Amino acid sequence: MHRPLRWLLLSLAVIVLDLGVKALASANLEYGRPLEVLPVFNLTLLHNTGAAFSFLAEHAGWQRWFFAIVAIGASIGLTVWLTRLKRGETLTAVSLALVIGGAIGNLYDRLAHGYVVDYLSFHWGGYYFPAFNLADTAITLGAIGLILQSLFESRRDKRHAAQEEQS
Predict the structure, then answer these.
(1) What are the domain boundaries of the chain?
(2) What contacts 17, CB < 8 A, 6 or more positions away?
(3) Higher-pLDDT residue of 128, 3
(4) Which among 111, 118, 105 has a CA at the least distance from the CA of 75?
C-alpha cells in the first residue's frame, strides 16, 4: 500500500529538531555575540522579523502575518501535492517533506515570537552570509531536491520523446 503522508513524519522530525535547536541556541547564546566554531563559522543568536536574507525585516510588523499566511498556504499546498504522489517519487516526497517541516518550524517562531530565531553564521574575510537556521536549511535542501527532480524528469521526457521518434 502506498502511503504518501508517511513522509509527514520527516516533516515532523524537522520541526522537532529545528525548534529544539532554536531553544538551545536561545538559552545558551548571547544575542548578537558570535561564538566562533570554525574560522569561517560562528554560532550567533539573531532574530529575523523578515524572510530570507532579512527581506522586509525593517517594516513595521505586517510582514510577520504576511509570511505566516504564505507559510500556511505553502504547507497546505505542498501537503496536497504530497498526497498525490505516486509510488517511486521518493525524491519529490522527501523534498516536499523537508520544505513543509522547515516552513512550519519558522511559522511557529513567527507566531510565538514575532521573529524567526537564526543562529548559523558563515563568513569569509569581512563578508558575512545572512544567518540562518535548521528550518531554512531544510527548505533549501527541499527546493534543491525539487529542482533536481524537475531536471531528471525533463531529461527522461526528452529521452522518451527521442525513442518514440525512432520507433
Answers:
(1) 10-28+59-125+140-167
(2) 134
(3) 128
(4) 105
**Which SS3 state, helix, strand or coil, does residue 41 take?**
strand
pLDDT band at 1 (very low <50, low <70, confident <90, very high): very low
Q: Look over the chain and give the mean of its residue pLDDT values, rounded to a whole number.
A: 88
Please state the three-class secondary structure of 91-157 as a single string: HHHHHHHHHHHHHHHHHHHHHHHCCEEEEEEEEECCEECCCECHHHHHHHHHHHHHHHHHHHHHHHH
- Are residues 66 and 55 in contact, defined by beta-carbon separation less than 8 angstroms? no
The distance in angstroms from the start CA to the end CA of the chain is 35
Which residues belong to the active site? 118, 136
For residue 87, give the C-alpha cell. Answer: 509510488
Over the Cα atoms of the chain, what is R_g?
Answer: 19
